[in-house]
Amino acid sequence: YLLWPSLGQVFDQWRTLTQLSPLWVVVALGVEALSFVAVWELQRIALQTKRWFPVSMSQLAGNAFGRIIPGGVAAAGTLQYRMLVRSGLPGARIASSLTAVSVLLFGAVLALPLLSLPAILGGTSVASGLARAAYLGAAVFVLMLGGGAAVFVWDRPLALVGRGVERVANATVRRKRRVTGLTERLLAERDILRTTFGRRWQAAVLAAAGKSIFDYLALIACLRAVGAEPNPSLVLLAYVAACLLGMLPF
Question: How far apart, in whole angstroms, are the C-alpha atoms of residue 104 and residue 197?
Answer without folding.
Answer: 11
